[in-house]
Amino acid sequence: MTDTYEVFYIINSFRQVNQMLFRAFWNENKQIELTSIQFMVLSILKERPSIGINEVAELCHMGSSSMSAVVERLVKGEYIVRSRSHSDRRSVMLQITEKGDKVQQETHRLWMERVSPILDIPKEDLEHLLRIHTQMIEKLEGREMNNP
Fold it and tell me: What keywords are annotated for this sequence in UniProt (predicted)?
C-alpha cells in the first residue's frame, strides 16, 4: 500500500466515525434542539461558570469570531446570558441560564444513551486509540508550525 492510500484510509476512517457519531445523535431524533458545538459550549459553561468567550473558543478549538456566532445564537435562544465582569468592566462573561442547564442535561442524557456502546470497547483499546490520536495531533501541529 502506498503512502497516499494509507493516508486516505486513515482520514476516511476518521470521517466515517465522525459521520456515525453525527447520525447517532443529531440526525436520528429531532427532539434535540442544539448543535454539537452549542451542546459543547453549554457543557463548558456548566462546568466553568462565568468565563469569557475567548476561553470558551480556546476550549472548543475554535476562533473567537466563529465562537461569537455560536454564543449569539445561544443568547437569542435564552440558553446563556452575557454579563460584565466585576473586576474588569471591559470583559464579558458567559453564564448558562436555567433553560440552558435543562436543555444541556437532557442533551447529555440522550448523548450518553446513544454513544455509550463505545464503552463496550476494551478500556486498553480505548486508551491506545486516544494515545494514537494525541500523537497524530502532535505530528500535525508540528507540521503546521513548520509551514506557516
Answer: DNA-binding, Transcription, Transcription regulation
Can you give the CATH number for the domain in which 81 is found?
1.10.10.10
Q: Are strands 80-84 and 51-52 parallel, antiparallel or unpaired?
A: unpaired
For residue 66, the model assigns a pLDDT of 92
53 in the same domain as 97: yes
Domain that holds residue 87: 34-146
Q: Which three cell numbers, joined as nine digits, stand for 119?
A: 464503552
Kindly list the distances between the CA atom of residue 105 and the CA atoms of 38, 109, 110, in Å, as whole numbers in the listed order: 13, 6, 9
pTM of the model as a whole: 0.76
In angstroms, the CA 120 to CA 100 distance is 31
Block residue for cell numbers 463505545: 118
In 3D space, the residue among 101, 82, 104, 138 whose CA is nearest the CA of residue 34 turns out to be: 104
> CA–CA separation, 135 vs 117, rounded Å?
25
